[in-house]
Amino acid sequence: MRNALITGAAARLGRAIARELHRDHRVIIHYRNSATVARQLADELNSIRPDSAAALHSELARAADCEQLAEQAVKQWGGIDVLVNNASAFFPTPVGSASEEQWDQLVGSNLKAPFFLSQALAASLARDNGCIVNMADIHAERPMPQHPLYCAAKAGLVMLTKSLALELAPQVRVNAVAPGAILWPEQETVDDTSKAKILERIPLARTGNAEDIARTVRFLVSDAPYISGQVIAVDGGRNLNI
Fold this sequence. Notes:
Blueprint: E1 2-6, H1 12-21, E2 25-31, H2 35-48, E3 53-57, H3 63-77, E4 82-85, H4 100-127, E5 131-135, H5 148-167, E6 173-179, H6 192-200, H7 210-222, E7 231-234
Parallel strand pairs: 1-2, 1-4, 2-3, 4-5, 5-6, 6-7
Helix pairs in contact: 1-7, 3-4, 4-5
């Protein structure tokens, strides 16, 4: 059985991805602050299939954090075959008020950590033709107002996806998923009027759900052996009308 590490897997999209991959993988649920829910998810998955899930903590702020998490993950079951870089900070940084700390947090979680985790796990991933799936964003190509640092970090992650696909080939495939309107952000209040305006610009006229993302990740992991270096938008067509 293959082993998957999903960062930021205690809640929201990461939680759905962990559940979906658990169907035929052992999963490591990485968390930063959500220890209780991460362990609850691991217990839930282990009740379905014993010794098939584990929760590991890491800040991921420094390269050393990523290397330590990679080492722990490899030790858990002898290797990692799938890495899903899902952990992500998201908040507005309007020009004129953005701080260096915000830069470090947004670029760190969305770009720095995915690179150093991928680097630390490259040997394990290559051993059995593994893969990496990065969680990008449709706003990596079309900017979101008042979010220049987040958009820049995600744009960097898209190029990192393509670069790693070249650097790690042919043993490791690397792709990305770019969600659109799936879950409303926890850190920001989105009023009904704003939600309606966003929905008006989605050709499918509805938001998606976490399972839409999870199933796409599973497709890239399990059913796409000849796909690498690609970014799949899962957005109901929103990128056509930004």
